[in-house]
């Protein structure tokens, strides 16, 4: 991921979680819990959360795994990882500083790979996001599952317009006010508007080598959970 994006997250990191809560009316917590529970149901012994940020998804994975799984998490932003490491139970997750586009793991290492509300940041182009999904595919064991939780595009044109208006004019300002990062939340809001539909993202996952790709929409399509197998 580009250095400019990394700087944005360094700037936004101090109040990142608080800003996200305000922008989503705390729905981001519910959606992460739903996604983590679905991911944990796949089983396996070794799990990886990429672009983990402040570690929310990784810690939910540990919880829903009953504390019996080896959960690793990585991010490219050190202040985010510092925040993650300060949390209760953080010692139960193995955090590391790394870029999701070049994972520091051998082929066929994990039973599960997850990413939550960070896929928009690896979407520098369709070619780039396909290549990064291919990297996730590489480190999964045969039969392993990839789970993606991300904003999406509502099917209803009216709801889509309202969603984009809210993100551009309300959520962005909430985020900027709480975090103090105008640049960060201007960038983050822009990524929502140009992200893929659920069907388009499913097709990209297939192009990256995944099979049995499926998804379900959340809250009329403003977000979606995609699951796919290696």
Structure description:
With 230 residues, this protein is an alpha/beta fold. The chain has a single domain (26-152, 192-229), classed as Rossmann fold (3-Layer(aba) Sandwich), CATH 3.40.50. It contains 9 helices and 7 strands. The protein has helices at 3-12, 16-24, 27-40, 56-64, 78-85, 126-139, 157-179, 182-193, 198-207; strands at residues 46-49, 70-75, 94-97, 110-116, 140-151, 211-218, 223-229. Strands 3-2-1-4-5-7-6 form a 7-stranded mixed beta sheet, sandwiched between helices. β1, α4 (56-64) and β2 form a beta-alpha-beta unit. The longest helix has 23 residues, at 157-179. The radius of gyration is 16 Å and the shape is globular. The mean pLDDT is 93.
CATH superfamily descriptor: Vaccinia Virus protein VP39
* Poorly predicted sequence stretches spanning 5 or more consecutive residues: none
Number of strands: 7
Instruction: Report helical residue fraction.
Output: 40-55%
Order of helices and strands: HHHEHEHEEHEHHHEE
Cα Rg: 16 Å
Average of per-residue pLDDT values: 93
CATH topology call: Rossmann fold
Largest sheet: 7 strands, mixed
Q: Specify the CATH architecture.
A: 3-Layer(aba) Sandwich
Question: Strand arrangement, largest sheet?
Answer: 3-2-1-4-5-7-6
CATH class: Alpha Beta
Please report which band the strand proportion falls in: under 5%, 5-15%, 15-25%, 25-35%, 35-45% or over 45%: 15-25%
The gross shape turns out to be globular
Secondary structure layout plus pairing:
Blueprint: H1 3-12, H2 16-24, H3 27-40, E1 46-49, H4 56-64, E2 70-75, H5 78-85, E3 94-97, E4 110-116, H6 126-139, E5 140-151, H7 157-179, H8 182-193, H9 198-207, E6 211-218, E7 223-229
Parallel strand pairs: 1-2, 1-4, 2-3, 4-5
Antiparallel strand pairs: 5-7, 6-7
Helix pairs in contact: 1-8, 2-7, 3-4, 7-8
